[in-house]
Amino acid sequence: MNWTFLINQSLAQMLDFAAPILFAALGGVISENAGVVNIALEGIMRFAAFFGVWGAFVSRNPWVGLLWGIGIGALLGAFHAYITVKWAGDQIVSGVAINVVAAGGIRYFLEWIFKTTGYSPTVPYFGDPKHLVNLKFLEGIPILGAFAHLHIFIWLSLILVFVLHFLLYHTVLGLRIRSVGEYPLAAETLGVNVMRIKWFAVILGSIIAALGGVALSLGTMSSFVETGMAAGKGFIGLAAMIFGKWTPIGAMWATFLFASAQVLQFLLQAIAKGIAAKIPVGFYLALPYILTIGALIGVVGKAIGPAADGVPYKKES
């Protein structure tokens, strides 16, 4: 058995599975550091996945699809901010509403636009070999060989981790975002425009989550499939954010842990022998979600988020 090939392929698969979850986790990190809970990440990903495919279908260009996905992410983020920031509405209710509309609305859009039920036609996508970021000199090198042929979303998710870390912990804007999430009244007293910062963080977080949706439909796949798209990855992203203690780098490591479970289920199904072969397939499919729940149980009471996270703020008169 070629162990170098197996290791590199497994790592490449893990990175592919991790990218959408990591985008969702980073979207949650930036939003919740500003004090706004966004559990609509799952719905935003579904909308972005669909609009990304729609844009690529109309233009026959995946880059246009990417822009459509970003656009719908920004619109949904603005809607969530309008309800939760401007009117101090319940953040959970607003997020659930977006998720519910995404669950039912996409089915209508599929039938209306593509005249199909459950799936869209195939479109040009970033997983096509001609769109991959090819680093052939890494082929055959243990571990590094996993990075030889990856689509752009994987690289973008990894780069974004360190960009957001720098933004949050090494810039004035990042200090203002974190101060708004910890103690908005004190931040306002010091001249920080709390409402503007919250609007910015929610919309930016939604755009980042939308990238995760487009990564699913135009990175890993080349179409939108209603039953399999997102599939709880937005919620796993939220779990990764909590497990990573609301930091970009912590969320990245948590995401890799959850994505490894996804790869592990494939390996176990492929090499299962004896007693392992008698275990129902559903157990292997549930492994990533079991690990997510287990990780959350392990951090309950230990992971403490921003002090004002989820608390509606009304500007002092």
UniProtKB/TrEMBL annotation:
<feature type="transmembrane region" description="Helical">
    <location>
        <begin position="37"/>
        <end position="57"/>
    </location>
</feature>
<feature type="transmembrane region" description="Helical">
    <location>
        <begin position="92"/>
        <end position="110"/>
    </location>
</feature>
<feature type="transmembrane region" description="Helical">
    <location>
        <begin position="199"/>
        <end position="218"/>
    </location>
</feature>
<dbReference type="GO" id="GO:0022857">
    <property type="term" value="F:transmembrane transporter activity"/>
</dbReference>
<dbReference type="InterPro" id="IPR001851">
    <property type="entry name" value="ABC_transp_permease"/>
</dbReference>
<keyword id="KW-0812">Transmembrane</keyword>
<keyword id="KW-0472">Membrane</keyword>
<feature type="transmembrane region" description="Helical">
    <location>
        <begin position="143"/>
        <end position="169"/>
    </location>
</feature>
<keyword id="KW-1003">Cell membrane</keyword>
<feature type="transmembrane region" description="Helical">
    <location>
        <begin position="63"/>
        <end position="85"/>
    </location>
</feature>
<feature type="transmembrane region" description="Helical">
    <location>
        <begin position="283"/>
        <end position="305"/>
    </location>
</feature>
<dbReference type="GO" id="GO:0005886">
    <property type="term" value="C:plasma membrane"/>
</dbReference>
<dbReference type="Pfam" id="PF02653">
    <property type="entry name" value="BPD_transp_2"/>
</dbReference>
<protein>
    <submittedName>
        <fullName>ABC transporter permease protein</fullName>
    </submittedName>
</protein>
<feature type="transmembrane region" description="Helical">
    <location>
        <begin position="12"/>
        <end position="30"/>
    </location>
</feature>
<keyword id="KW-1133">Transmembrane helix</keyword>
